[in-house]
Amino acid sequence: MAVRPWSFVVLALAASVAHAQTYAPPHVAPAAATPADALRDGNAAAMAGDWLAVSQLVDPLLRGQLPPADLAEAHRLAGLAAFFQGRRVDAENHFVAYISIDLDGQLDPALYPPDVITFFNDVKAKHSPELRAKRPKIKKRYWVLAILPPVAQWQNGDTTKAWVIGGALGVFLAANLTSAVVLARYCTRVSGEGGSSQTCDDGGDHYGSAPTWRAVNLIGGVGAILTYAYGVYDGVKNYRRRSRETVQPFVSTTAKGESLFGIAGSF
Fold this sequence. Notes:
By secondary structure, the protein is mainly alpha-helical. The chain contains ten helices and four strands, in the order αααααααααββαββ. The chain has helices spanning 5-22, 35-48, 51-58, 68-84, 88-101, 114-126, 128-134, 151-155, 159-186, 210-245, and strands at residues 188-192, 195-199, 247-253, 259-265.
């Protein structure tokens, strides 16, 4: 029986169609127009658990130039994708890069399962010395300076407030001391059978100007006291607030399932 040549062509085409029906190409995430779009789509893919799409969207970003915040987010997503794809070394490298940029970076336990949270916390603990070295040095502060305005405001970093309080104190004290010196020169304390009093007529008639200087002296003294009191209140309040900000409690879970409680801060 003769076999016609065109029959082989038909058989080859049928085999190709059958192969195309049984083979499905891997999922390819559509290219994003901008890095912001890629990060947005990457987060959406992460929420859907499509870690291959997350890698396809985020990995190209890491080969370009990104602002620090976007670069940190790209490393965070890349670390998550690597972890769920079983690439633990890559996941650790991406997480270290993430928290090297965002030193207080965390993974939300409400969004991700405990195993990746534990892995992330273990990475932070493992690399804590190098991460701690990246933190900016915080100038040491002293409690005694909190009650010495305007030095207290300088210590707390409120430089504008320090200039205002320092200037007000200087003006009020200068008015008080200057008026006190003038009154001492104008007026003389005299005493007699009825008690003691001041006369402001020695060396000239200062009866008219003396009350004005007394008012300046009173206003300067009261203003200096009130300004100092406010400076102490502000210095102590902000000293305590900034102390609370640098001391934060934390909870961490180890790989053995143990929970660790502690306080982190700068001293």
